[in-house]
Amino acid sequence: MSVREEFDQWAAEGRDRGMEERHWHTAKHALARMPVADGDTILDLGCGSGYAGRALRETADAGRVYGLDASPEMARNARSYTDDPRVTYLVGDFEHLPFADDSIDHCFSMEAFYYASDPHAALSELARVLRPGGTFYCAVNFYEENVHSHHWPEMVGVEMTRWSEREYRRAFRDAGLYVAGQDRIPDREITIPSADEFPTEDWESRDAMVERYRTYGTLLTVGVAP
Ligand SMILES: C[S@@+](CC[C@H](N)C(=O)[O-])C[C@H]1O[C@@H](n2cnc3c(N)ncnc32)[C@H](O)[C@@H]1O
């Protein structure tokens, strides 16, 4: 199945809101770190339900927000959750961003970047549209060090690029972005049942679940356009 077909189905089944709820645990910490100033133009790559853009409009007074998603159904759902005229949801793909050079102040992406069919091309596009000093906050739960995520491509049924922390840094630099920081944001909100409730359908042991959420969590890599 293509990424578009997969996520069209998720959106049609209303699973975009469940995804938002789970991702919000760590996404909100990444969003809170973004140096958004009044009036800035923001891009959310792979926006899903579009919650990140709406949050930045509400909390950081972003001037203009664009959420871009390959799935028309996701973009349609996202549009239905707001009537803010400064928030726009577009259908498009990471490798062909419909924006002029140097036109975006900050970009955010949560649990989406690794679906890019050509992640290097996606980073080059991003470097093109970011204004000098603009930032890219790239958050992923699927990455090499997080061994508990390795089976996801078979589970979801679409291709994903599994980079290590070092590979993310190198790819950002190769695309012409400085790496301003990289760290893991633990998910402290997910409920982890008591030891006697394991194994479960998803977890062999409580330790594995603790490691996945509290030790690995979300990998955040921050790039800055020169
Ligand atoms: C796992 S969802 C995450 C959605 C949202 N960012 C969140 O945190 O809930 C990944 C989203 O990225 C979108 N996506 C994947 N590859 C894409 C691409 N190449 N171009 C645009 N959107 C893409 C999918 O359609 C999907 O809505």
UniProtKB/TrEMBL annotation:
<protein>
    <submittedName>
        <fullName>Methyltransferase domain-containing protein</fullName>
    </submittedName>
</protein>
<dbReference type="GO" id="GO:0032259">
    <property type="term" value="P:methylation"/>
</dbReference>
<dbReference type="InterPro" id="IPR013216">
    <property type="entry name" value="Methyltransf_11"/>
</dbReference>
<dbReference type="Pfam" id="PF08241">
    <property type="entry name" value="Methyltransf_11"/>
</dbReference>
<dbReference type="InterPro" id="IPR029063">
    <property type="entry name" value="SAM-dependent_MTases_sf"/>
</dbReference>
<keyword id="KW-0808">Transferase</keyword>
<feature type="domain" description="Methyltransferase type 11">
    <location>
        <begin position="43"/>
        <end position="138"/>
    </location>
</feature>
<dbReference type="GO" id="GO:0008757">
    <property type="term" value="F:S-adenosylmethionine-dependent methyltransferase activity"/>
</dbReference>
<keyword id="KW-0489">Methyltransferase</keyword>
